[in-house]
Write a structure and sequence with these properties.
285 residues; Four Helix Bundle (Hemerythrin (Met), subunit A); 14 helices; mainly alpha; 2 domains; 66% helix; 0% strand
Length: 285
């Protein structure tokens, strides 16, 4: 199992930040896009119904507009976190407030700032709701006879993507981690892609079986302490994390302690569905 971990190649597509997959990416991307359109609509209405200069009106809504754009852009990276978006909003409100005051002295900077903060808060609350979707914290176990293998594979894939996203947020550059460290615990996307491909190919039952076991083994690596999986230097370089400094904390526990997503629920579900898959495939062979 440990040998398998070190076989991951750092150049694999799954390891690049822009390939990260948030479990609610579609919803978040859609919400941010609709929010941006909504802010544009408010801008058009205010520009039409008031005598405010076009430049002042447009500048007034820049923080809210860029917040929506930032959400759409960051969701496909390992850097999507609500606190980042909140920091983006506050920074833009301050900068735009100063610029607005300098260019348009008669503009109501306080009212404009308050409006942007209110609009931004609404978006962040919506995103926070999706981020803490209670359905994700449950391990849903359906009667085996009601489950089809493709559905089980899709569930395993979704949970692995969610776990990978948490790994990207916790073991990131500013915590002293690097891509090679993440490679040792992430489930590479080509594994579940190969699994899906084999599932669609007649006579590939053995390949499906082997891939499921491979994914399950990688998931079980996360149950081991950091100092068993990572090198001594990698453990020593880690910082800014709630963990034992000697690396004796299990990796899954480190992920759970340092991220708001229910990663232990994701992990438990992924393991259970892998076991269901192995059982069903074995019965079919």
């Amino acid at each position: 199992m440990v040998d398998e971990m070190h076989g991951a190649h750092p150049s694999h597509p799954d390891n690049h930040p822009h390939r990260a997959h948030h479990p609610h990416a579609r919803f978040i991307r859609t919400a941010c896009a609709l929010f941006t359109l909504f802010v544009l609509l408010i801008f058009v209405l205010i520009g039409t119904l008031t005598n405010a200069p076009f430049g002042a009106a447009l500048l007034s809504f820049v923080p809210a507009l860029l917040l929506g754009v930032a959400g759409v852009v960051l969701i496909d990276t390992d850097h999507f976190e609500l606190q980042y978006l909140a920091l983006v909003l506050v920074t833009l409100v301050v900068i735009v407030g100063v610029v607005l005051y300098l260019l348009f002295p008669d503009a109501d900077v306080l009212a404009t700032s308050a409006l942007n903060i209110i609009l931004g808060a609404i978006l962040l609350i919506i995103l926070a709701h999706s981020h803490k979707d209670p359905e994700n914290s449950k391990v849903i176990v359906i009667e085996k006879e009601q489950q089809e293998i493709p559905d089980l594979v899709k569930t395993v894939e979704d949970r692995c993507k969610a776990i990978n996203f948490v790994i990207g947020r916790v073991y990131r550059v500013n915590t002293g981690a690097h891509a090679r460290l993440r490679d040792k615990i992430k489930v590479p996307s080509d594994w579940y892609n190969d699994l899906t491909q084999a599932l669609q190919t007649p006579g590939e039952e053995n390949v499906v079986h082997e891939m499921v076991i491979k994914i399950k083994n990688r998931l079980e690596v996360m149950l081991q302490p950091e100092n068993v999986v990572f090198t001594e230097a990698e453990v020593r370089n880690l910082k800014n994390l709630d963990r034992n400094q000697e690396g004796s904390t299990p990796i899954l526990e480190v992920l759970a302690e340092n991220d708001s997503d229910p990663v232990q629920g994701y992990h438990k579900a992924a393991i259970e569905y892998c076991e269901l898959l192995i059982e069903k495939i074995t019965h079919q062979q």
